[in-house]
Every structure is written in structure tokens, then in C-alpha cells.
Specification:
Blueprint lengths: L2 H26 L5 H35 L9 H7 L1 H8 L4 H17 L16 H11 L5 H20 L9 H27 L24
Helix pairs in contact: 1-2, 1-8, 2-7, 2-8, 6-7, 7-8
Length: 226
């Protein structure tokens, strides 16, 4: 098992264990008691925190691992090239005169494309990882996760209810049966992104040409690539 694959497994495992511990507390509390209601609200908020936190962990790990492999920008897929040049594009917008654009495309862009991939700006969740933002972030790195299509309604409600709890609204989760479908949705998506990231890195799907392609020209310092 690769180091990054093990990191993903360990991170997911402790999150599942923490949720399981809270659920045990809810079961041990008297049904309908203030204590049980408080624990159920805490589980809901914690479930969202783990859903957001794990997705962010996976995206950051993916970008960290790609950086370590030291590929040229020009060898990467378009999505990653654009993500790695976010700061460059932002600076360019400050001066879009004809001469500045000409200099950028004539000199600066070829220079940037010859440099190693780096991601000084990472994907953000803004503490509201709605389904559309989840999909947008995946698209930004060229990652495909299909489970979100099946559970986007549940995840939308998870985010919304979490916000209500955070804003002090008296959201009541009746029992664990009411909560369970949302946990299933969140952890299905978390497992989905975990598998997608592992496959993405193993297959080196971030490259414009795959290692199996006869015209593959990318140069890497990653020991797994040889």
C-alpha cells in the first residue's frame, strides 16, 4: 500500500470511529431526553465537519502528491494547469493592455508551462461544501466522483441543517433512524472520493499522456513511476 493510500485510509478510519462513539452515546441516553437531543445535534454537526474535512484532506493530499512528482505544467491536464496558474492569471487581470497580453503569451506563458506543477492556492470549501461546490472542486482537479449525483439532496440538507445548528436554530433530530440516511450519504461520498483519489494517483490521470501511451514524454522524479 502506498503512503498516500494509507494516509487516506487512516484519516477516514478515525472519522468513522468518532461518529460511531457519538452514536453509542446517543443510544445510551434516554429516548427523547434533552441529553439525547443534544447528542443527536452534535452528531449532525460532527458528520458535516467530517464530510467537509475529509474531502478537503483528499484534495490537499492529491495536490501534494502531484507536486512531489515534479512534472512540468505542460504535461498535465488542462484543469490542473489552470489551477496551478490561478495566481498568475489574477496578476494578469491587473494589466490587460495589448502589450502586457502579448508579453504574457509570447514569453511568460511558455516559461510557466515549462516549470514544475505547483499549487500555491488550494481548493476551498468555505465551510459550506454544497453538492455543486463539491462537483466544482472535483472538476478543478480533473477528478470524477459519481456518488454525489445520487446523494446531492441528502448532502444539501446536511449542509443546510448544519448551518441551522451553527446559527443557533432549534433543529430537532428525532432519533438515529432519522439521522442514519444522511450518515450513509456522507460516508458513501467520502468513500467514493477516497477511491477516486487513489485511482487517480495510481493511474496518473493528472497527465495529458498516460505512461502506457507510446508518445508519453512526461518526466517524473516519483519512484513509483519507474
Amino acid at each position: 500500500m502506498s503512503d498516500w493510500s494509507e494516509q487516506i485510509e487512516q484519516d477516514l478510519s478515525w472519522r468513522e470511529s468518532e461518529i460511531a462513539s457519538l452514536k453509542m452515546q446517543a443510544v445510551s441516553a434516554s429516548a427523547g431526553s434533552d441529553r439525547q437531543r443534544a447528542i443527536l445535534r452534535a452528531i449532525w454537526a460532527m458528520l458535516y465537519a467530517h464530510y467537509e474535512g475529509f474531502c478537503k484532506f483528499c484534495w490537499d493530499l492529491l495536490l501534494d502528491e502531484i507536486e512531489k512528482r515534479n512534472h512540468r505544467r505542460a504535461d498535465a491536464i488542462d484543469a490542473l494547469i489552470k489551477l496551478s496558474l490561478v495566481g498568475v492569471f489574477r496578476n494578469l487581470r491587473g494589466n490587460t493592455s495589448d502589450s502586457a497580453l502579448w508579453e504574457f503569451f509570447r514569453t511568460n506563458l511558455p516559461m510557466h508551462l515549462s516549470e514544475s506543477l505547483a499549487f500555491p492556492q488550494r481548493l476551498e470549501t468555505r465551510s459550506n461544501l454544497w453538492p455543486n461546490l463539491f462537483q466544482k472542486n472535483n472538476e478543478a482537479v480533473g477528478l470524477t466522483c459519481v456518488a454525489i449525483d445520487q446523494f446531492k439532496d441528502k448532502i444539501g440538507k446536511l449542509v443546510n441543517y448544519r448551518n441551522e445548528i451553527a446559527h443557533g436554530k432549534k433543529l430537532v433530530i428525532k432519533n438515529l433512524d432519522d439521522y442514519k440516511p444522511y450518515e450513509d450519504a456522507a460516508f458513501t461520498i467520502m468513500h467514493d472520493i477516497a477511491i477516486a483519489v487513489v485511482d487517480y494517483l495510481e493511474q496518473r490521470s493528472y497527465l495529458r499522456a498516460r505512461p502506457s501511451d507510446p508518445d508519453h514524454q512526461a518526466v517524473s522524479t516519483d519512484p513509483q513511476s519507474t
